[in-house]
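# nightly structure sweep
# worker-07 picked up a monomer target from the shared queue
# config: single-sequence mode, recycle default, output format = structure tokens
# input follows
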Amino acid sequence: MAYAITSVIWVLYAYSLAFGADVHGIIGNLQYVFMNGVTSNTLHPSTTVPEFIYAGFQLAFAAIAVALVSGSLIERLKFSAWLVIVPLWISFVYVPVAHWVWGGGWLAKLGAVDFAGGIVIHITAGFGGLAGALVLGKRKNTQLVPTP
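# output follows
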């Protein structure tokens, strides 16, 4: 479900905000909203890869980051609450940082290079998971083997 939610958000607006033209180093514009103009015939501006393929590749990174966060929140909250957190986390954490580093934002302008996703994926997911664990407290069911 988290992958499905991330995919829908990515197509609707997240790809555009992460990789659209830079707005003051903070976020991308809405030029690609609903994947407007993203086709297999257009190349991503900074690569020789078709933009449609590039958008799908970046979607996989966003979904992996959500999966990493989920690992620290399992048994700390209800599944329905997780489904509310996913779009919020993607929109307000992952997308801005992806723009800052990979989309031409302020970190990219400072010279940050993130080939393997250490900043965008691992740091955002790590701190997201840590924040969630700190806010939610201990896991609800920590017993691995039921007692007789």
